[in-house]
Amino acid sequence: MAARTTTGHALDVAALLTDPATRIVVCCGAGGVGKTTTAAAMGLWAAEHGRRVVVLTIDPARRLAQSLGLTELDNTPRPVEGAGAGGGSLDAMMLDMKRTFDEVVEQHATPEKAAQILANPFYQAVSSSFAGTQEYMAMEKLGQLRAEADRTGRWDLVVVDTPPSRSALDFLDAPKRLGSFLDGRFIRLMTAPAKAGGRAGFKVFSVGVTMVTSTMSKLLGGQLLQDVQTFVAALDTMFGGFRERADQTYALLKNSETAFVVVAAPERDALREASYFAGRLDEEHMPLAGLVVNRIQRVAAPSLRASRALAAADQLADAEGPDRSATSAETEGLLRLHAALAETAERQERQVSRFTAGHPGIPLVEVPAAAQDIHDLTGLRAVAASLTGG
Q: What pLDDT sits at residue 182?
């Protein structure tokens, strides 16, 4: 079934993906709205229409690997067999947050300093679990893929499935949050002894800090405190590299060759999140292509509204009583099922209409809910056909 719009103008996904000026597509939105499936379907469709595509997913459930027929995805782009029928190609990869952080360290530190950081126990914990690390590393990997595409010509389109965050804004806020961590009071406290400027300066500094570090040592343990201080001192030398890289990626996201596609479910909270995200993109002057409303309920007979179906089912039940035929009972059941589906469809349409009324300038496309989970290329092609109106 082809996608449709409720009001306003349609998002032309086919034109977006075939335009050679589009080099990056970022699928963003709240968790659980179908970003991974949307990103994979876009990548597959683009590859089968002549583009050389790499899809970067950050999906802990690993549904993309299953959908693309791959046994595993990791930090290395891997070709997807059977996805280049239209003369293009499709590679896919899954973000390895820890490995990407290691690559950043190796890039921005001397070999000796990098080895010191990578071996540090506190770094090993932070690089795997620090809040915002996944989002920051997703942006870092996007920058790496784009740089490789420019250098080698291997890809002409990068499709990014952003992390399944609590908030869609986490992806854009990640570099700032990491910078706040590096600028924070705790980090300054840890790095201050090394910056105190000689024995006299260190003595003065020590008067104010000895009690604090003593307390922290009791709370954290002497070895952990030493690991933290060693890690922070080493990381401080890389701070400029982190800042520079974040600025470069932010500039890349604002580039006219980038297109943001916000993905939402037809529910109030998801559409509210999409509204916030659209506003934030506008504030940051980042290019919003449009909104994909995923998993829209469709009914076979849209003219039969829920209220009429329920009334017909009640009338049928009252007319024949308990001795009615099996056919009559089945008809009543179908009417009640249709009423439930039609009620869902009507509620979703009201939610989408509210969004479009508040954002009349945002192109929108609706994608019907699939009858079953997407688990292969055939299912992805069906989603792509809905996205592109094919």
A: 56
